[in-house]
Amino acid sequence: MAKQKDVAQIYCGWEESYNKVPRLLQALQSYYPGTICEFRAVPYYDGHLMVHDCSMFDKVFWVFPAYVEAFKHCNPFVSIDGTLYGKYCGVLLIAVAQDGNSNILHVAFAIVESETTESWSFFLTNLRQHVAHRMAY
Fold it and tell me: Residue 62: which domain range?
């Protein structure tokens, strides 16, 4: 418990960190032009009552332009997987590809609440929209 309190004091707690996600994405897009980010928030409920002017992190997708460019030179096969992480059991989804030298390239990332059909649909739809349609050779 002491370690968790120290980490929270130094780096902020999970709740405060999630509130910083939109600013982090704006900074990524500002400092690395062409970065694609898709952020989703949902209304916040206190019991059965919706709290006005308050939303809660739901999911985020991001891809860097250099990865999209490099993906054009990879084998035409993408592998996807998810892994649990953190106190709130979110899932990090990643799409990877393999280049001609058998090196692994991370193509796209997403953080979602769990591995549901809706979460995978969010990830794969964004992957198709922001990566696959740029694959004109």
Answer: 2-134
Task: Say if residues 133 and 112 touch (Cβ distance below 8 Å).
Answer: no
HSE-up of residue 40 (Cα within 13 Å, Cβ side): 14
49-63 and 104-112: which strand pairing? antiparallel
Predicted confidence at residue 110, as pLDDT, reads: 92
Q: 91, 111 in Cβ contact below 8 A?
A: yes
- In the chain, the number of structural domains is 1
Model pLDDT for residues 57-84, shown as the tens digit of each residue:
889 999 998 888 888 888 777 788 777 6
Distance CA 136, CA 109 (A): 22
Q: How many other CB atoms sit within 10 Å of the CB of residue 37?
A: 17
Distance in angstroms (rounded) separating the CA atoms of residues 31 and 13: 25
Q: How far apart are CA 108 and CA 82, in angstroms?
A: 12
